[in-house]
């Protein structure tokens, strides 16, 4: 693990505008920067970076956070990968915490394999520009109409025909032969070193963050009786079932388009990119696995599968798609014209024509499956029954009830069978699934508790808004000195509650803390509670709050809440109202009223909650009535202060 010292140094050194500026073109806007959202397609900037607070917010997608969270959202880095990226950017030495000998050995081996793989990538790229590489490899790529930009983007290379050219070069450069063997780049046979990928075009296979995991190689001499394509064997860094070719190059486009196009081969991905369609990956000729689907689900919930114009191939490819539905993904199928694959289809077409074809010919998977399979079974009742059950099995994987209902109606028309039959078959399948599930874990049916939870949810939402407003006031105005004029409660000679006007000059955080402390009010939202005590502690110790230092100590969810509050307050900066002589009003003059009203509303809400608790408890009725009356009188006084009619 990365040491706490390194993480702290990263947060202290990183400048959010510089890290974000590596990926987004930013323009100065007052004390902030703004730019076009990297997460959506837009023409008017809605993306804002605050250098003073060291946070960013994208108003079009709702995302926001620190420099680290930007890398996690935009580049899909893990937390350690984001820390390492920033450390490398600013030349910070990465210090690791103490590991067991076994962990250290495994991490060292992994890093060695990554280093070997990166060396191999550079070697293959360089070899493509050698005399042999140009005459054989590069000429093949040009013949297939790959342009230089794509060759560079995907780091396409060439492995020379000599039996051990790569292995000798790597060993002479200081790389150990056992690591060459573990990556699969070198085969050891009878003490001989043999290059696995010799005389092949090389396609590096990368992780989501861009590290080279393995390679695919295509033979150029079709006369030889060997496999056209070969891949690296599995290793501790390359697991074929967990990798998608093109995920690194296409991830940002997949997020922006909220859709991923799935194709079969390496060249399909590259040609699609060359045509302008960049939200595309390849499963390298195999059906998607659960791990690959989970990888995609980090980017989008929508997948479009491109099928070659080959009916037999389409039927074979259908078999693995139920797994995608089971992962709560939306799947569409686009069938290419007969005799076409993605590579050949896009080669001679304009981007607009390709997009129009995809939009016009993409069909929902279940509707497509029903139409395709029924063609072969129209005159065979036994086959048709089997097909219907197969399709209903697919429908059963869909968790959304509305979508499931629509599928049933559509499939009823396509298959010329009543909806009732489909419902009955679906019920049988679901019953069997429940039976299988109940063997593992009992299913509890508690309809009453469901009703209660809905009421609780509405109550928590009201409190959530009020608690969030308290946090907002503290973050934005906590250190402001304000004259608070309000009516306070006191008892008269008869013991009745009356109000009396008072005026006190306090810092906003002092006012909030004292009022909540006196009333013994605790935040119900755990994140807000931790943020609240962190803010109060910061004010008490430092007399102010340093947003940059404070936010780095919070969890991801807490960072998200704080970023939203702070940046939403500055959203007007994006529109540059001052240019049109429109000046947004400052809230500073209304802080006193805003603070007092928020606390009063919070008190009223908690009184309602307390009264409900009294009514539900099995206590002496006369005592309950007295308590309810007391609280009701208190709420009446609070409501009068809020000018509210009960």
Just give the CATH class of the largest domain.
Alpha Beta
| End-to-end separation | 58 Å
Give the total of domains: 4
Radius of gyration: 32 Å
What's the pLDDT, averaged over the residues?
81
How much strand?
A: 5-15%
Q: How many strands, which pairing sense, and closed or not: the largest β-sheet?
A: 5 strands, antiparallel
Indicate the percent of residues in helices.
40-55%
Based on Cα principal axes, name the global outline: globular
Write the layout of secondary structure elements.
Elements: H1 4-13, H2 16-21, E1 27-29, E2 32-35, E3 47-50, E4 55-58, E5 64-65, H3 67-74, H4 79-89, H5 101-128, H6 131-143, H7 148-153, E6 157-159, H8 165-172, H9 177-183, E7 186-189, E8 192-195, E9 200-206, E10 212-219, E11 229-231, H10 247-257, E12 260-263, H11 266-275, E13 280-282, H12 290-297, E14 302-309, H13 311-318, H14 322-326, E15 330-338, H15 342-347, H16 351-361, E16 362-364, H17 365-374, H18 381-396, H19 401-415, H20 419-440, H21 447-477, E17 481-491, E18 497-507, H22 508-518, H23 526-542, H24 547-551, H25 556-568, H26 591-616, H27 621-641
Parallel strand pairs: 12-13, 12-14, 14-15
Antiparallel strand pairs: 1-2, 2-3, 3-4, 4-5, 6-9, 7-8, 9-10, 10-11, 15-16, 17-18
Helix pairs in contact: 3-4, 5-9, 17-18, 17-19, 18-19, 18-20, 21-23, 21-26, 22-26, 26-27
């Amino acid at each position: 693990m990365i040491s706490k010292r390194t993480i702290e140094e990263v947060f202290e050194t990183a400048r959010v505008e510089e890290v974000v500026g590596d990926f987004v073109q930013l323009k100065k806007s007052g004390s902030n920067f703004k730019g076009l959202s990297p997460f959506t397609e837009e023409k008017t900037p809605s993306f804002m970076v605050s250098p003073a607070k060291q946070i960013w917010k994208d108003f079009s997608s709702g995302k926001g956070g620190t420099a680290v969270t930007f890398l996690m959202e935009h580049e899909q880095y893990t937390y350690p990968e984001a820390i390492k990226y920033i450390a490398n950017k600013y030349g910070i030495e990465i210090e690791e915490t103490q590991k067991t000998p076994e962990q250290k050995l495994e991490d060292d081996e992994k890093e060695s394999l990554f280093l070997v793989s990166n060396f191999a990538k550079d070697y293959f790229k360089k070899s493509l520009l050698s005399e042999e590489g140009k005459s054989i490899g590069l000429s093949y790529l040009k013949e297939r109409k790959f342009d230089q930009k794509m060759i560079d983007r995907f780091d396409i290379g060439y492995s020379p025909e000599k039996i051990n050219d790569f292995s000798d070069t790597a060993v002479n450069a200081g790389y150990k032969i056992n690591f060459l063997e573990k990556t699969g780049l070198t085969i050891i046979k009878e003490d001989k070193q043999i290059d696995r990928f010799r005389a092949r075009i090389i396609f590096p296979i990368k992780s989501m963050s861009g590290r080279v995991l393995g390679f695919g190689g295509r033979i150029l001499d079709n006369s030889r009786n060997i496999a056209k394509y070969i891949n690296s064997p599995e290793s501790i860094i390359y697991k074929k079932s967990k990798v998608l070719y093109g995920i690194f190059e296409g991830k940002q486009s997949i997020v922006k388009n909220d859709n991923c196009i799935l194709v079969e081969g390496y060249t399909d991905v590259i040609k699609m990119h060359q045509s302008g369609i960049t939200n595309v990956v390849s499963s390298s000729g195999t059906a998607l696995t659960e791990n690959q689907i989970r990888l995609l689900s980090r980017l989008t919930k929508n997948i479009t599968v491109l099928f070659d114009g080959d009916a037999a191939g389409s039927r074979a490819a259908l078999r693995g798609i139920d797994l995608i539905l089971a992962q709560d993904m939306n799947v569409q199928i686009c069938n290419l014209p007969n005799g076409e694959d993605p590579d050949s289809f896009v080669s001679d077409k304009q981007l607009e024509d390709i997009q129009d074809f995809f939009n016009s010919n993409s069909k929902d998977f279940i509707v497509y499956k029903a139409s395709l399979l029924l063609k072969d079974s129209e005159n065979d009742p036994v086959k048709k029954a089997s097909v219907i059950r197969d399709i209903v099995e697919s429908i059963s994987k869909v968790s959304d009830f509305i979508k499931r209902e629509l599928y049933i109606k559509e499939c009823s028309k396509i298959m010329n069978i009543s909806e009732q039959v489909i419902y009955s078959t679906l019920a049988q399948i679901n019953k069997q699934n429940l039976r299988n599930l109940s063997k593992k874990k009992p299913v509890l049916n508690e309809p009453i508790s469901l009703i209660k939870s809905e009421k609780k949810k509405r109550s928590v939402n009201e409190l959530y808004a009020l608690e969030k407003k308290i946090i907002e006031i503290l973050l934005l105005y906590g250190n402001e000195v304000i004259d608070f004029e309000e009516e306070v409660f006191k008892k008269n000679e008869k013991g009745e509650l009356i109000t009396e006007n008072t005026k006190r000059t306090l810092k906003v955080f002092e006012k909030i803390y004292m009022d909540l402390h006196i009333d013994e009010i605790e935040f119900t939202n755990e994140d807000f509670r931790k943020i609240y005590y962190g803010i109060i502690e910061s004010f008490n110790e430092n007399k102010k709050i340093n947003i940059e230092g404070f936010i780095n100590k919070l969890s991801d969810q807490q960072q998200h809440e704080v970023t939203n509050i702070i940046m939403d307050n500055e959203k007007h900066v994006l529109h540059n109202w001052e240019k049109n002589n429109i000046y947004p009003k400052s809230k500073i003059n209304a802080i006193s009223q805003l603070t007092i009203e928020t606390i009063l509303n919070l008190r009223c809400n908690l009184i309602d909650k307390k009264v409900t608790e009294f009514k539900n408890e099995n206590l002496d009725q006369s005592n309950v009535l007295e308590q309810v009356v007391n609280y009701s009188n208190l709420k009446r006084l609070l409501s009068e202060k809020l000018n509210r009619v009960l």
